Amino acid sequence: VMDPYAIPMKVAIAGQLECETILKNTAYLCARWGFYADGRKLVTLNGDGVLSKDAKELPVGVTDGTVNLDAIRANPLLFSAHHVRIGDGIVSRCWDSASLDAKTTTPQDRDIVETSTGRIHRPFAARMGGSLKNSSKALGHRMFGRRKVTEFGYKSQHNYTTDAAEAAALGGHLFNPCAAVQKSKSSTGVFESFARPSSFNLSATNFIVVGSAAGSIAADAAAKAVISGMSQNGWLYAEEDKLQEELAATFSKAKSVIGVPVSGLAQALAKL
Model-level pTM? Predict the structure, then answer.
C-alpha cells in the first residue's frame, strides 16, 4: 500500500518482507520526492552502472526493473545497482549495496541472506577492483549511522569545514579507507584497486536502454522507451509528460545513448 500524495509520503509492505521490495518502494517514494520537491526535477532510473575499463566513463544499463542483472553485478568495476539518480549534471547511485544469487555467492559478514528467495544482499566495499562476490570488508560510513547523512546528504562535496576527517565523513567516504590495499596497475592499465567514486559526470555517462531497438537512439526516443517500461511496471513516479520531457533533456546531455535487447546488455557494457 503506497500513499505518494501524503506529507510525509508513506508505504506499507505486508506479508513477506524482501530487501528488493523495500528498495523498489523506497526508491519510488524518493524518486517522486526528488522530482517534485522544490522543483528540483531529479531523475531516478532503474539500472546498474559499471565503470569503463579506464575508469573515465560510466556505462549505465537502464531497465524496466524486471531484468535480471546478476551477471553484471559480478563485474569488479560495478559502480551502482538497482537505481541511479541524476541531477545537476551528476549521476550518483541510490544504494551502497547489491543483490546477488545465493547459489553462486558465499555469505560474508553483514550480508543479508534471504533463504526463501535465494538472494544475498551485500554492501559495497570502500574500494573497487575486486569482484563484489569477494569484496573487501571495509564498508562505507553509511553502515555505521545516518545522522550526518540526513543532515548534509550524501555524495556531494562541500566546504562547510576544513577538517579532513569531517569532510570525508560528510562527503560519503570512509573515515579510514583500507590502507592495506595499494594502488597498482594491471596489464590493462587500470588500477586494480582504488577508492569507490560516489558520483560521475553526466557528460561522461553512456546510457544503454535495455529492451529498445538496437543501436544509437535519439534522446526523445530513449525517454519514451524508458517511460513505457516504468508505466507497464507500476513505477511511473511523476506525471508522464513532465518526466519524459526531463528524461529526454537528461539523455541529451549524456555522452551517448544506445539501445540493446535484453540479451545484449552484458556485451554492450563490455564494449564501453
Answer: 0.77
